Amino acid sequence: MKEFQGKPDHDELYRSAELQAGYFTSRQAARAGFQSKLLWHYEKTGQFLRVAHGIYRLARFPASPLEDLFVAWLRCGPKSAISHESALAVYDLSDVMPGEIHVTVPRTASRRRAGMRQHTRPLRLGDVKIREGLPVTSVPGTVADVAKAGLAEDLVRGAIREALRHGLTNKRSLMREAKRYGGRAARLITKHVAESGEHS
Questions:
Q1: What is the chain's percent helix, strand, coil content, to nearest 5?
Q2: 184 FRET partner, CA 20 to 30 A, in 31, 54, 60, 107?
Q3: CB 29 within 8 A of CB 4
Q4: Beta-strand (E) ranges in 3-71?
Q5: 3-class DSSP string for 137-167
Q6: Domain residues for 87?
Q7: Do both 43 and 113 map to the same domain?
Q8: For residue range 146-191, what is the model confidence (pLDDT) as tens digits?
Q9: How many domains would you assign to the chain?
Q10: Angle in degrees, CA 185, 110, 119, rounded to 5
Q11: Digit-coded pLDDT (tens) for 5-24
Q12: Same domain, yes or no, for 73 and 52?
């Protein structure tokens, strides 16, 4: 982490937070010159709101309904993304709320985190979409992830049908992920895409 010299840079911190729906980490704040004592001062004056250990929100931004997901993502780092059942919930493709927040990270994490399930796979360009400032695995990738991970077939089928019906993806993109993943993911996606009455 770079050493900051001089006054804290409010603009730099704002630019980081703006891209993240107003949320930022203490590490990001430190890079902009807001060390722990200054963070404490801005928290006490109500300009920064502490939402979790090491994670804050600029007071001028409203709390996101996805705040718990932002916290999980920020803890895992900028190369991660909300995924699996948690991503289905973000896209409103499932009524089932997972007991843990699912996050995909590019490599095995050094430690487990309570209330969070981490999955490991490389995230390529196009694998991640931004929803309300939050990085989330793409709809086709999310469907393939949950199918591969063993989500009940009726929930996979429902997610595919809703995604196609609402134009969140198309058959071609789903079949591309089916080929990429193989196994159970390919079997379920191929079956339920074929059954769907929606056009590509």
A1: 45, 15, 40
A2: 107
A3: no
A4: 23-25, 48-52, 55-58
A5: ECHHHHHHHHHHHCCCHHHHHHHHHHHHHCC
A6: 67-195
A7: no
A8: 999 999 999 999 999 999 999 999 999 999 999 999 999 999 999 9
A9: 2
A10: 10
A11: 568 999 999 999 999 999 99
A12: no
Rg, C-alpha atoms of the chain: 19
Considering the domain architecture, whether residues 110 and 45 belong to the same structural domain is answered as no
CA distance 4 to 7: 8
80 with 167, same domain?
A: yes
pTM score of the predicted model: 0.90
Instruction: Report d(CA 33, CA 10) in Å as an integer.
Output: 9
Six-digit token string for 28: 């990001």
In this structure, are 50 and 76 located in the same domain?
no
For 97, which DSSP code? Answer: P
Tokens of 42: 């801005």
Site of tokens 């399930």:
117
Classify strands 81-82 and 55-58 as parallel, antiparallel or unpaired.
unpaired
Give Cβ neighbours of residue 63 (< 8 Å, ≥ 6 apart).
51, 57
Instruction: Please tell me the distance from the alpha carbon of residue 159 to that of residue 168, in angstroms, as a whole number.
Output: 10
State the average pLDDT over residues 23-35: 96
Compute the Cα dihedral for 30, 34, 37, 39 and give only its sign.
negative
Q: How far apart, in Å, do the first and last CA atoms of the chain sit?
A: 46
Neighbour-count burial for 132-156, b at 16+ CB within 10 Å, e otherwise: ebbbbbbbbbbbbbbbbeebeeebb
Asked if residue 142 and residue 74 are part of one domain, the reply reads yes
Residue 57 per-residue DSSP state = E
